[in-house]
Amino acid sequence: xxxxxxxxxxxxxxxxxxxxxxxxxxxxxxxxxxxxxxxxxxxxxxxxxxxxxxxxxxxxxxxxxxxxxxxxxxxxxxxxxxxxxxxxxxxxxxxxxxxxxxxxxxxxxxxxxxxxxxxxx
Length: 121
Known about the structure:
Layout: E1 3-7, E2 10-14, H1 25-37, E3 42-46, H2 61-71, E4 75-79, H3 83-88, H4 90-101, E5 105-108, H5 111-120
Parallel strand pairs: 2-3, 3-4, 4-5
Antiparallel strand pairs: 1-2
Protein name: DUF4180 domain-containing protein
InterPro entries: DUF4180
Organism: Granulicella arctica
């Protein structure tokens, strides 16, 4: 079940593990709509909700979706274990490292790590 939680001063829309997958720009619109309806500052999307090709960077899905979120000034965190995808792709490891150094898109293991990232900005 989706729910809004407050971490510090940030309204986080925590998506449940079950539900439509994020696998296209059209899906990104649905996630944006949900964020706006809940007045969320940040989307926390479980890794289970990512489409099968989302983390395959050559498909460009992740880049396009994240760019759309950034364009609409909505931060995003992918929450969960993506270690298998990371093992298979040096490009993805580099992408995750780079995004985690910024303040707009993060890959975190769990909500506690998300809280730590938010506290640091």
